[in-house]
Amino acid sequence: RKEVEQDPGPFNVPEGATVAFNCTYSNSASQSFFWYRQDCRKEPKLLMSVYSSGNEDGRFTAQLNRASQYISLLIRDSKLSDSATYLCVVNVYGQNFVFGPGTRLSVLP
Amino acid sequence: DGGITQSPKYLFRKEGQNVTLSCEQNLNHDAMYWYRQDPGQGLRLIYYSQIVNDFQKGDIAEGYSVSREKKESFPLTVTSAQKNPTAFYLCASSIVPAASGGGQETQYFGPGTRLLVL
Which residues contact A38 (CB under 8 A, 6 or more apart)? Predict the structure, then answer.
């Protein structure tokens, strides 16, 4: 089983839709969690960290379920500019980041 | 303007040639990393450095070498021993090493170098 798994995608959604990304991780000792966004042929950029209590930044909401070893990212009212690949990243204390393979999103006009 | 720079943007390697990718940061970050990304795959760690004059192998270090003589710089050499070097190479840095946790381990990436084999 891979350390970090994500929905295979791609997701094609119309503008204004709500879209949810799912991520599961295998190491129960994981302690830091992030969502990165990567545009085509560009570097990944931090979208948001994921906290145990869940956190929201505008149209974006991240949730963490430690018991199920599951992370989610919800995008509401999606915009054309949200089209990108979304990477789930997990960190275990004393080790290095583990990146998921990413889920590609295309928001259609 | 603080940030991470990588050069060149595109690099072509001939058979049997060693090539060096540059990575510079002026963020005063202690930790630096090199990743490789292949199409449709996640980032894989090549080498990382938590402090000047020290570095460790990542998951796919074979065929690569690094140095960390200055805090700001972490060049990556792709040697002729790397048989499949075509990929997108990403350099990253963080205030503290990823292993430290505590909230300051967030990594910031440079724009990347695309390496192609002739």
Answer: A44, A45, A84, A85, A86, A87, A102
Q: What's the rounded Cα separation, in Å, for the pair B72 and B62?
A: 24
> Strands (DSSP E) along B1-118, which ranges?
4-7, 10-13, 19-25, 31-37, 44-51, 54-57, 64-66, 76-78, 87-94, 108-109, 113-117
Q: What is the pLDDT of residues B32-65, one digit of tens each?
A: 999 999 987 889 999 999 999 999 999 999 999 9
> What does the pLDDT average to over B110-114?
97
d(C-alpha A72, C-alpha A49), whole Å:
11
Closest CA–CA distance from residue A17 to any residue of chain B (Å): 25
Contact A75, A60 (CB under 8 A): yes
Q: Give A29 to chain B, closest Cα distance, Å.
A: 12
